[in-house]
Model the fold of this input.
Amino acid sequence: MVDTIATSTWAVETCGLTKRYPLAWKRKVLVALDHLDLQIRPGEVFGLLGPNGSGKSTTLKMLLGLVIPNEGEARIFGLPPDSLDARRRVGFLPENPYFYSFLNGDETLRFYGKLCGVAGAALEKRVEDLIDLVGLQNGRERPLRSYSKGMLQRIGLAQALIHDPDLLFLDEPTAGVDPLGSAQIRDLILRLKKMGKTVVFSSHLLEQVQEVADRVAIFSLGKKVLEGSLDSLLAESRETQVQIPGELDSPRQEQVLRLLGEAGIDPAGVRFSRPRLSLEQLYLRTIQTQPGPSARDSQPRP
Amino acid sequence: MIASLYRIIVIGRNTLTEAVRQKVLSVLLIFALVLVASSVLVSQLATPGLDAAGLIDEQIKFVKDFGCGAIGLFGFAIALLSTAQLIPQELHNRTIYTILAKPVRRSEFLLGKFLGVVLLVALAVALMSTAFGLSLYWEEVKGVAYADSVYGGMAPHFPQVVDKVRQYEAEAAQVQAHGGDSAAQTQEMRALDEKYRLQETNWEGCKNVVEDYDRDVGRIQGQIRDPQLIEAVLLIFAKLIMTTGIALLISTFATSSIFTIVTTFMIYLIGHLESVARDVWFQRGAEVSIWQSGLLGFLSLLIPDMNSFTIVDEILAGNHVPWSHALNLLGYANVYLVVLLALSIVIFDYREI
Done:
């Protein structure tokens, strides 16, 4: 018995979505996704987390109508995912895309724009805007075969946005991209969020997900095992952290402990530590102080 | 409907651009050069002492056979290889996901891809036919020059004799066309005789040589400027597009391009052999079992009769093949293609990617 979705104000809604692949030679069935119920609000940035093979990409493909579910139902803004009306509101960046290596940046965007019915001056304007948005001015005339991984991901994002969709599905948008490129993509997602877009993305880089996602779902072996807002999932409700500027020497630490003891707090549970930079923050801080961070991208490859 | 057609054209044009930029056509260019050079090679093989007319006919036949054979062969390779890798390459580059995530129907994607290959094959056939035409033109120039040299040896001042005979005949025809009274006409003819006929000691002999020359040159030009060659190229193109259709159908469920290539090739071979088997079995009359006729019926429904396109050989042999027959074959190819495309769309609609 499959539940059906009657009406929807959600950007994405799934109900009992299931995908099974029969493995004939092993006489087994692989359950790629098992009864997924998911609701994503318009304007939300939603992260899909999980190890390889946990069902993230299958979920995205079913939400795009590329894979047909065995059970359950999905709706995009209340529409069936494989309808043209739903696809007009959706943009997609697949995992590790290569695109058409014989086209240059502008030609790639024009091709996808024409497929979406954008043409003439409107298309040219859109191409200009998107090239600016993703920062690919140096890749406009170059064939995609000479693009770096980061540039490919950015042109991928631009093609996903060519018809100004309301909802974006990004499958591992930062996979294989160096930390700087990865940070640029993260910033782009944040800009898209400010523009009111709904973004659903999968990633292995947990720190990045933490920085951009409003809510996440964690998948394991085809099942959604956890879902919620980052604030509610990550807050350690039994502890409180106080951050102060400057260093706290031993006499001052003892003074603080005494004050806390007077307030009825057990000093045994109090820890003093200095906040650390993450390695990514250190890397970005170092690289970004160097001249021309994207200079490498503009050099033609042999 | 128009939007749908527009998307098909956009995908088709992109597929053609891909093929052109990935240097598929450079192979064709090499072929074209080989084809043009082949007629030069044949001329070098010509041995003096042979019957001139026979030698020229043989050379023209060779260029025609070789040209059409090469168009068919290279066209087959281009059609098969480019169709077989259409879908696998899209999957490998993940471009199929980006296209089908856009407001594009699967049928539009598939028809667009097919259109791209059809345009590529058309371009390839057009280029090869141009090279073929050039090599035929070269044969004509060579053949006429050869006739000039042969007849020049038979009559002294041959070019002048030809001019004289032609001028005489042209002017005589004008006199006869004017009409008027017979006395004046006879007088005018006599003047013409004095001007041309009586200048040559063996006027009748000269006239015969010129007639023979005209007949030989006419035969050469007739073989080369044969409008049936257009018919032949069209039929070759139709056969190539049918091959493309078969390869497209197989690639909609194949998991690799090698599978598509091998299976299409097998179907192509069976398509050539089924009519042979039909002829052999039905010649035996009563010996044909219900199983045999059932199998043949099933095969002819499933696999197109490629052998019917060997009518091209008849055209190349100089036999007359009426346009109605060629149009029938083109119609058969069209109907078969529509069925192939419809099946491809249905299968591709259910394919998970």
Residues 106-154 of chain B form the longest helix (49 residues). Residues 168 and 255 of chain B are 75 Å apart (CA to CA). Chain B has 14 helices and no strands. The mean pLDDT of chain B is 85.
